[in-house]
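Much of what follows relies on a compact textual record of a protein's fold. A record is reproduced here so that you can trace the correspondence yourselves:
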Amino acid sequence: MSLDKTTGLLKKAREWWTTKIIDIRPGIIRIKGTPIQDLIGNVSYAHMVWLMTRDDQPTPEQAALLEAALVSAVDHGPQAPSIAISRMAVTCGLPLNGAMASAINVLDDVHGGAGEQCLELFNRIARHPAGLSMDDTVTAVLDEYVAEHGKIIPGYGHRFHPVDPRAIRLLALVDAAAKQGVVRGRYADIGRAVEAALAQRASSKLPMNIDGATAVVYGELGFEPAMARGLFILSRSVGILAHAWEQKQQGGRIKGPMPPDIDYTYTGA
């Protein structure tokens, strides 16, 4: 092979993958231009999440708000399908990585996607043409959303919690951050306006849940809706790991979703 052809192939190989995230050479590791040794011990994990997924550095206050959202969604008990799957997977012989992968794979549109869907809804309200009041804008966008997706509004109501304590705390942190000028508070206003509109429609309160509250946080911090799901998965992975590890310590073999002496309902002929 000629030298020119070899040089061309090497150039093509180097250009096959491009990234502005990390620069690695012998003895050098830089994340977005910052040496890794300057980050280790000096920034939080939430700061690193921001740095890896964005093109800017967070302020300490922004990183703290992101961290609060990540902490809020780590776990919701074995009744959550993803958590249950991680525990069942361990009893079927899978190692931790297999149990985590099995659980994360079910975090899709129905179980895991509400935060992304809610932030998409909030963005539609935020982008609505000027001239309408907040209440009229929310009404119009909710009508559009229900016509497209059905009556379930992501981010509101909870099958276990009449009021979601996680949402209350996150909204309080957003309010405090807005007073300090860290965020604008626009998404908090939108979230509360949607909550009020839903209460009028249902003639009963339908409070914001954890998915709605994290959507508020991620919207205030400028994350795209798809990232809201990714960040939720990152957060919930901690709970998945913890439950898989706990089940590994407890032992058990081929545990199904219910004890074997509790039968299912047969509906066939």
Notes: Residues 81-250 form a domain with the Cytochrome p450-Terp; domain 2 fold (CATH 1.10.230.10).
